[in-house]
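hey can u check if this looks right to u? its 530 residues, i copy pasted from the old doc so theres a chance i mangled smth
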Amino acid sequence: MTRWSLACVFGCCILSGCSETDRGNSLGVAVDAQARADGPRYGGHLRVGYGLEPTSLDAALGRSGGDAYYWRQIYDQLVDADRKLSPRSSTSLATSWEISSDPDAITFHLREGVTFHDGTRFNADAVKFNVERILDPKTKATPRASMTVIQSIDVIDEHTVRFNLKRAWGAGLNMLADRGGVMNSPAEVAALGADYGWRPAGTGPFKVNKVITGTLVHLVRNEHYWGTDAEGRRLPYLDEVTIRVIRDQTVLASALRTGEIDVAYLPYKDVAAFQRDDRFRIETMPGGSIALLLAFNVAKPPLNDANLRLAVAHAVNPEVINRAIFFDKVIVADAGMWPVGAWAHDPDVPRPFYDLDKARDYLARAGKQDGFEFTAVTSNSPVLIPTAEIIRVMLKKVGITMNIEVLSTGPATEKFFHGREYPLYLTGWSRYPEPDWVASLAYKSDGYYNAGNLPRADVDALVEEGATYYDVNERKRVYKKLDEIVLGEAWYVPLLYGVSYATAPKRVGNLDRLMGWDGKMTLREIWIDE
């Protein structure tokens, strides 16, 4: 085993001790000089800047969408998906699958010869363990509500497993490309218990070497990774990755310019400057996130009254916020929780837009024509804090007094969705083009991201129906109905859809493969010419 020593923090090297011999051996293949000259470079240390620390490296238990920037490097999914959200067997732990309707079931044929980072084998028993762990209410797994369609799991043989379903599951393969399909080592989960979240063992291209809470996560190459690129070259290319937590946007941009980090999503205020700098390459994804969202707890007074929620939504002008905070680099939301670029995006559904007269009308309907007061929570993001202050001023124009509490992302998310301590969360949201992710986890009565958890049989029935169909047009019809309810009653009101600007100096290769279907970073095919 290679020995590692801490050489310096936040400089050009974080860890030292790996020789070129070690690197060559870790690839498992000989990399000749011609390959290095003509193709991707093997080796090197990629330093990534990102604004959020992980709430957990255990994908099943992490509560923030930002966690995926970390865990996507550590795990593989049972079924992976390409940029268009089409299932892709070449990068999946299942090499093929069959869907049956009598009875409803999906049978998966698993990739052979795959091991977890702890050296134990990936097989059908591991799949059964992981899915049953998510389904167990005691686990409190984030994706549980999206997986309860699974009735039971049968291990057919070591490399074949069958999901027995309560009904058809048209959303299933796409849902397995996210948290629900992540495979953890059963042995390590059992051995480490609560500590597993910071010492996980997946099957992915990188292994966790070091976590400094609130500061960085350091990953090293998985020497036994099974994946290859399109030309058959072993992955990953990189020796090491350090994901450094940089909350201050000015510091992040400066670190890119000076070479302290190699890859980041640009702060919006710096996009124009980097577009003029020919040292850098930029890849974009419109609708790569929801940049600003009003997330309501529909059971928490005083915003348990839909009229008051709609008054808040109509009193906020997202165009002003786009100019003042986002430098006109994002998109004013015209639909629901499925942003531009997602097939369920539907701008024809009625939704709250900025209109002070309507805001005052809704206040009057609720008997609060003189206004009311409440406390919102937001996270300590350099974007969200000033945004919250602008929204406070906007609401005051119609007599609404909004107090603001600022917490770090993990506590803010936990206290809003689980602790139910606030009626409104001013936040962002990750890109989830598979509509059942949002529908099951945010709209369904038992969904983790449904802060109110009020029984709504009509909504629950629509969520289940939308996930059932295999025909996209049938699914669109259902999600339009869900949009009409959620936007009409102001459960979630997106204000701005984000645009992701992934940026790196030109010595970073394959930047066009950095962003996956969800807009998160995937580093398995990134290389660097050091």
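The two ends are 24 Å apart (CA to CA).
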